[in-house]
Amino acid sequence: MRTTLVIWRREFTAYFNSPVAYFVITIFLVLVGVMFFVPFFAQDRVTMREFFGLAPFLFVFFAPAITMRLFAEEKRTGTLEMLITLPVRDGEVVVGKFLAALSLLLVAIALTLPYAFTIARFGDLDFGPVIGGYLGLLMLGAAFVAVGLAASSFTENQIVAFVVAMFASMLLLMLDRFVVFLPDGLGAVVEYFSFSTHFRDAARGVLDSRDVIFFLSFTLLGLFLAFRSLESRRWR
Amino acid sequence: MSDAQPMIEVSGLSKSYGHIRALDGVGFEVPRGEVLGFLGPNGAGKTTTMKILTCFIAPTEGQVKVAGHDVGQNPLEVRRKVGYLPENAPLYRDMRVGEYLDFVGRVRGMEPEARRRGAARVVDHCGLGDVIDQEIRTLSKGFRQRAGLAQAMIHDPEILILDEPTSGLDPNQIAEIRELIREIGRERTVILSTHHLTEVQAVAGRVLIINRGRLVADGRPGEIGGDRGGAVYRVVLRPMDGGFAAAAEAFAAIPGTRGFEEEPAVGGKELVLTLRGDGSSDLRAAIFEAAVARGFTLLELGLKKVDLEAVFRRLTMEGGEPPGRSTEEVK
What integer is the mean pLDDT of B268-295? Predict the structure, then answer.
C-alpha cells in the first residue's frame, strides 16, 4: 500500500514535470467550457446535458493522452527495469500508475465544477443528473484509464499506445451505434457492452449498481491485462 | 545467515528467449566481500544473468539464491538486499538527482531520517554534491552513471550488481568509478559485468568468463592468465635459408611448445616468431639453445606473460564464428 502511494506520487508529479498535463487539461477545459455556455447563452437554458453528452467523447482522446506514457516510456528508456528491481510488486506498480492517471483525470473533472456552479447561480440546475453525471464520468474515466494503461503496457511506442487506447475506447463507447446492423439477440448483447448505455443511465441521475459493476469490471479487466503484460517480461 | 554461506548461489541456470538459449547451465557461487568480474563478449549472457539475479526476469531452469533467498520464491526479499545498476543507468530523466534518490529511498521503505542520511552518504560517496538539484536529463553520462550507482547504494546493500558501470565514460570517469567500486568491494559483495578486460584486472578479485551462455573460466585474474593461457615468447631471428619452415622445425622439438606464428616483419630483414608455451616451465633457455644448435642468429628473445585479453580471446573465439548475437568487437 505504502509502495503504491510512493509510485502514485512519483507518477502524478511527473505529469506536472512535463507540458502534457497542462496542455491536455487546458484543451479539455476550453472544449468543455464551450459545451457549458453554448446552451446557456444561445438557448437560455440551465443544463449540463450537452456537457455530459460530449465529455465521454473528449475522454476518448484525453484518457489515452495521459496513459500512453505510463509503461511505454519506461519500457523504451529502460527505467522499468530500474523500477521493477526495487522491492515492489508488479501489482503495486500497475495500481500506482493507474491511480496517478486517474488522479489527473479527476483534477480535470474537478476543474469543470466552477462551470457548474456558475450556471447554477443563474437558474434552476437539477442536481440529480449533475451528481449522477459526474459519478458516471468518474467511472467511465477509470475504465478508459485502465484500458489506456493496458495499451501502454503492450508497447514501447507511446504513439502506438495512444492510438490503440483511443480506438479501443472509441469502440467501447460507441458499440450501441452498431446495434441497428445486428440481429436482435446479438444486438442486445452488444448494446449491453457499450459504455454509452451505462453512462446514459448515470447521467439521467439514475445510478444503478449494475452500471457501477459494469464500469468496475472493465477497470479491473484493464488493470489485469496491464498486470499480466508486465509480468510476462519474466517468461519471455 | 552465517558468514560461510555464499551471498550468491547459482546452479544449473539456463534461460531461453524463444529458441535462443541465452544461458546454458551456468553455476557459480560468490562469497561475502568479493568483487566478481563478469566478463564476456556482448550477447554472451552477462546482462541476462544479472536480470535474473535481480528478479527482473525468471530463469527457465536452475536454482538461484541471493542472500539466502530464492529469486523465484522471495523476489522482494532479494531486491531488498541488492542494489542494482542496469546497463546505461536508466533513470527518470524528469527528476532531479536528489528527488530521484529520495524516491528510491521511499520505494525501499526507508524512513525520512534514514533516507536523508542514506542520500547524504551516497551523494558524498559518488561526488554528486554539485548536481543534486539538477534534472537528470541535463547530466553528463558520467554523472548519470554516478547517480545510478548512488541509487543502487542508498540502502547500503549487502550485494551490489552493476551492469557495465563504466561503459561510455571517459578515462578519468572510469578511473573514478573503479576506485569507488574497489572501495565498496572491501566490505560488500559486488558483481560487475564488463567487456573491458582491464576493468576486471583493476577491480575484481575473481573473474568469470562467459561465452554463448556458458561459463568458460572461473578464477582469479592472475590465475586464469597463468594456467589456462601459458606464456608467449617473441623470438627474432636473422633470416636464413628455409625461412619460417626451418625455424619452425627447430623449435617444434622443444618440449612444452604449443605452436608458432610468424609475424609480418619489416622489410624481410628479420624473422619474427611468436611461440606459445604451455606455461609449465620457462622455455627461454631451450629456445636459445635450439637456435644456437641450428646455427641461427638470435636477435631478440622475450617472454610475454599472457594477459587476460589473450585468454579471453581464445576462450570466447573458440568455435569459429564470432560469439553472441552482437557484432560489436570485443575490446
Answer: 78
Question: Is residue A62 scored above 80 in pLDDT?
Answer: yes
The answer to whether B86 contacts A3, with C-beta atoms less than 8 Å apart, is no
Q: Which triple of cell numbers denotes residue B311?
A: 585468454
Can you give the pLDDT at residue B280? 66
Q: Choose the weakest-confidence range: A134-143, B20-29, B195-204.
A: B195-204
> Mind giving me the DSSP string for B263-330?
EPPSTTSSEEEEEEE-SSS--HHHHHHHHHHTTPPEEEEEEEEPPHHHHHHHHHHTTSSPSSS--PPP
Tell me whether A231 touches chain B (CB under 8 Å): no
How many CB atoms sit inside 10 A of residue A93's CB? 26
Answer whether A1 touches B (CB < 8 Å). Answer: no
Mutate to test the interface with B, among A3, A76, A82 (most CBs of B within 10 A): A82
Q: What angle do CA A35, A41, A45 make, to 5 degrees?
A: 80
Domains detected in chain B? 8-226 (3.40.50.300), 231-305 (3.30.70.3100)
Cβ neighbours of A84 in B, within 8 Å: 56
Cell (9 digits) for B42: 556482448
Spatial separation of the C-alpha atoms in residues A127 and A47, rounded to whole Å: 10
Residue A195 lies in domain:
2-234
Q: Do B79 and A86 touch (CB under 8 A)?
A: yes
Q: Is B185 helix (H, G, I), strand (E, B) or coil?
A: coil
| Distance, CA of B33 to CA of A110 (rounded, Å) | 55
CA distances from B148 to A82, B90, B177, B295 (A): 9, 8, 11, 63
* Residue A36 in this model has a pLDDT that exceeds 60: yes
CA distance to partner chain B, nearest, from residue A85 (Å): 6
pLDDT exceeds 90 at position B179: no
> What distance in Å separates the CA atoms of residue A158 and residue B272, rounded to the nearest whole number?
60
Question: Which of A16-25, A123-132, B12-21, B245-254 is predicted with the least confidence, judged by mean pLDDT?
Answer: B245-254
**H-run or E-run covering A206:** none
Q: Domain tally for chain A?
A: 1
Closest residue in chain B to residue A76, using alpha carbons only: B90
Has residue B171 got a pLDDT over 90? no
Tell me what pLDDT residue B268 has. Answer: 66
pLDDT tens profile B88-145: 899 999 999 999 999 999 999 999 999 999 999 999 988 899 999 999 999 998 899 9
- Could you tell me the strand order of the sheet in which B257-263 lies? B257-263, B271-277, B231-237, B298-305
* 3-state DSSP assignment of residue B27: strand
Residue B300 pairs in a beta bridge with B236
Report helix, strand or coil for A31. Answer: helix
